[in-house]
Amino acid sequence: MDDELDRRPFGSVINEAVSQFASLMRLDVRLLEAEMKKKGSDVLSSGVCGIAAVSFFILGAFALVEFLILAMVLAGVSAIFACLIVGILLFAAGFVSLRLAKRALVGWTLTPEHTVRQVRSDLAALKQGIRHGASQ
Fold first, then answer.
1. 20 to 30 A Cα–Cα from 107, which one of 4, 28, 46, 131?
2. SS (H, E, C) 61-93
3. CB–CB of 17/115 below 8 Å?
4. Residue 43: what pLDDT?
5. How far is CA 3 from CA 7, 22, 63, in A?
């Protein structure tokens, strides 16, 4: 069987390597599509839930702001100072929420990590196959 491999023309080896490489690239493209579809689905569902949450927070915030301001006015604080105090508290809560959101996204990426690893592995295998084929 080794004699048969030794007699193969170099062009045949290259042609086979290119064919196998093209096949691997098609598989890698399908893996990329599947991975990006999954990530896109995750981003979409997260975005929809995030938009709903923001809508409810905004409505709730309006109601709470009115409640706090009216409660402070009824407690004897001037209306303008009540609005200032509530505004500062809301700004602080927004800043804390923004920091928590930023921390939650640390390390998250849109890069198709599995596909990149697979392509690198395929390229290494192709290089090894060409070296092995050329040495015979």
1. 28
2. HHHHHHHHHHHHHHCCCCHHHHHHHHHHHHHHH
3. no
4. 78
5. 6, 27, 85
Best CA proximity match to 11, nearest among 1, 19, 22, 3: 19
> CA-CA distance, 24 to 130, in Å (whole number)?
15
- Predicted model pTM: 0.40
Helix spans in the chain (H): 2-6, 10-74, 79-104, 113-135
CA angle 115, 119, 123 (to 5 degrees): 170
Q: What is the pLDDT of residue 116?
A: 83
Are 41 and 121 in contact, with CB atoms under 8 Å apart?
Answer: no
